[in-house]
Amino acid sequence: MDKRTVGCLGGGQLGRMMVYAAHRLGVRMCVLDPLGEKSPAGQVAEMSVKGSFQDAEAVRALAKKCDILTLEVEHVNAEVLEELHQAGVPVQPLPFVVKLIQDKYVQKVHLQKHGVPLPEFEKVESEADLHSIGERFGYPMMLKSRYGAYDGKGNAVVPNAQGITAAFEKLGGKAGKKLYVEKWAPFKMELAVMVARGVDETMNVTMRTYPVVHTVQRDSVCFTCLTPPVGVTQKQQELAQKIATDAIKSFGDARGIFGVEMFLLEDGSVLLNEIAPRPHNTGHYTMEACGVDQFEQHLRCVLGLPLGDCQLRVGGAMMVNILGQGETPEMVTKTMAPLRRALLVPDAGIHWYGKEGCAKGRKMGHITVTGFTPASALEEIRPVLAAVDGDDAVNKLDVPTKPAPSVGIIMGSDSDLPTMKDAAQVLDDFGIPYEISIVSAHRTPEYMYEYATTAEARGINVIIAGAGGAAHLPGMVAALTPLPVIGVPVKSSTLSGNDSLLSIVQMPKGIPVATVAIGNAANAGLLAVRILGAANPGQRQKMARYMASWLFSRALRFERKIGEV
Amino acid sequence: MDKRTVGCLGGGQLGRMMVYAAHRLGVRMCVLDPLGEKSPAGQVAEMSVKGSFQDAEAVRALAKKCDILTLEVEHVNAEVLEELHQAGVPVQPLPFVVKLIQDKYVQKVHLQKHGVPLPEFEKVESEADLHSIGERFGYPMMLKSRYGAYDGKGNAVVPNAQGITAAFEKLGGKAGKKLYVEKWAPFKMELAVMVARGVDETMNVTMRTYPVVHTVQRDSVCFTCLTPPVGVTQKQQELAQKIATDAIKSFGDARGIFGVEMFLLEDGSVLLNEIAPRPHNTGHYTMEACGVDQFEQHLRCVLGLPLGDCQLRVGGAMMVNILGQGETPEMVTKTMAPLRRALLVPDAGIHWYGKEGCAKGRKMGHITVTGFTPASALEEIRPVLAAVDGDDAVNKLDVPTKPAPSVGIIMGSDSDLPTMKDAAQVLDDFGIPYEISIVSAHRTPEYMYEYATTAEARGINVIIAGAGGAAHLPGMVAALTPLPVIGVPVKSSTLSGNDSLLSIVQMPKGIPVATVAIGNAANAGLLAVRILGAANPGQRQKMARYMASWLFSRALRFERKIGEV
User: A97 CA to chain B: closest CA distance, Å?
Assistant: First the structure.
């Protein structure tokens, strides 16, 4: 669709998945990599150049074969990119941004200047500097290499003043390596957002932002990503997206996709950690979960094609990286075990990168599992994670591990339980995970507020609320969540449930409650199943089968009764 | 994940997409094609052999490089496959099935023997045969070549006795080409189903069936596929899946994916048309729409890996083929126009095949658009189809063209309209397509039955039913569909809607109706939006924004009122 050939500095797995996207779009690619045509991307690209992406001559050789240059790794020769760009070769993202990002200290200075919230940081010229900074920042602090760091390489924790010398030496400070230090960010979790920056038809900048993911690192390497993040409010997610977008806005006319890693602190504030000017491990989930994946989006940005849709097409997605276990045949088999296990998971996307060898710790592939909710994606990926990291793999993650509730059943009092248990029974019959809680609008109004406002982020899709008398719970909850709320009027002793029914059903315009018959919680469960099936043909078929069998079994029982008469 | 190398006879687009799937799974492939490494599949496969898949030596050369053989085209040298199979080289699907399918007449005899419903057919040895058969079959009849036919090549309609000679000559009957003839099947539409046949861990045969698609041919070449098919009942779809599955069951231990094309007749019966023992154009939609796509599924079958899930992950999907317009630069640009247009469609998957040249009529790529319903997928793909075939492209298709109703609003009488229009207004505000009909449980019980039982197949996700007095409509409709039904009690003159409310809300156990306040159809619309958002975070955000703005605007209005006092 585009006659230009795209040259890519780097031929690893990110480049490989970029080439697949280029194929689909009818765009030719040429990759530059030390492994040339044997690199993961070189194996599938139309052309390749064998050489280092840090070698000026090799980059120039790539440019000769291509109409536009981009990259899948930022540790490239930015000087020669700048020179080529000056000479009229389009390079995206712009070389000045690549250069700026390469030096993490300069990156931070730039972002700070543009008002992006960051952990405090300072340049380190000598070991002595660290002592004085440590007195101000407190311990632990994070010492970082300014250049060439990735996957935790180039980071060293300084636990206290006594640890300064070791950390300084570990990162080569004594040998003259350039370093800087960051104040410790006491984060609750790490978040990441992919931001796409392209142009519209009139060449004006246009941006799109993917959903927020919760990333878990293992030995400083990305291990899993979950989206939407559980336990992060809508507002916090919007804040993370805004910070990521603001940061990328500071990059002038640079185009491409950017991976933005952030910290969510206990107080709900968000600090930017670092930026990658390219497709990123935390964006792999977009292949199964979003309208257009990060690789196609990157090409669209770079080529000036219209941007694709970033929204989730699924209720949740979880990705796990597959790292090499070692080169022996046993270790290769062990490395591939989670892929084999993933074949049994209905919603798993398996991605092997085709690398030669299987070195320990090397990124060999990844698996993404999608689900109706983030919690159900987590539940489905559980056996795959177990194959990676033992049976308690999920427990070792700092993410919720309970079976994924899709329906929340709440009631004003435990006296409602004999009625409400019928809803739970129906959900059990249909295999739909749910949670049951006592939530009273009148006795525990604050908990009610908390429950209703966090239900969506916890992955709940439908709420069933039972209440009797002056029954305010269903309506109040409906006023606090965009989720559908089903109301069950519980039969009252004074007015036989007439009070409950009218309190629940007669909601004012603007806030609906789906009301079922007095005391009929089973129907509330069935309505929840139908609601979950509204967009899910498979679920709908289960309801159709239930309806057929239900009528059939009733008829049978009736015949039996007739026989008894 | 599997150390075996898979050899594929044929290196076209089907082979190319099979190679992508092999990459993801970590399986090596070698393709045999006259274009060798320049063929669409050869460009991306690890290895390739240049040669014809009909040439015994070339097939043997392929076998030497591979551990197991499969194919992406059935017009291959089946004798040499049989010979290799006898010599211990695994070949899947089994060569006897490939041979049997190659001769369409033998294929039909085989299927008839196994009780698969087919159009009547008969062998044709001479032109004279056609006269006597014509007297029995009636005209028109369909004369077909027994061998080597695809994409309509090898078919000739015999309109009447006078047309026999021309048709017989057209297909080379005089030159000794082997032919057979089929009785005309007066079909309402053409359906297709992909069937996967693999083995479980104990090497027992296991089968999975993909959803039914409605295929539209243009000049005897597949033009579009729509799933689920609109206007085909659940029972008819199940019948088509059963016939397809029964047919493939007749193939003994053969493994792989099979494309089964069928006719749906006006009376609702289904006849099998023909079978392809390989991935098929009518299965391309599985890449965006299903758990595991047909290419990965084929490899899983062939390699004896666990089968993947076939169910739809979306409400609907439509695929359109992109055929070459010609070799000139203008024609190449014209060919690619629909791809460029598809960049603007949020849910479009674009697939260019990387073929050399752009010969007129050649399959160059395809585009699949997914949606919340089949009708919305059709609506979204409209501009892409227009770029292929002019502004009236959709109208020329024999599929519904109306904007996609996702919500059905029904009411017992037009006197309910002043109440029910508020539901429509809300849906308009949220941009959700809907249909409005008068359906009375009492006055038009048969239409009510028809409406309720076909709503799901028409792509409706939620029904809003309003009724007053002895209000039976919501509950009766709920008893006839697995979809969620929202009931609006319309205010009655006699009992102020108390009768309507109790008739709607007090449903018996088993059949729920989501009841809203008396006369509050706006809330029914909002509840429908919430239901559609239960599995759709984007939709849910719209509701959250609405709730925020609603409260805000109310508060503003109240302040203004206060000011006026």
Answer: 27
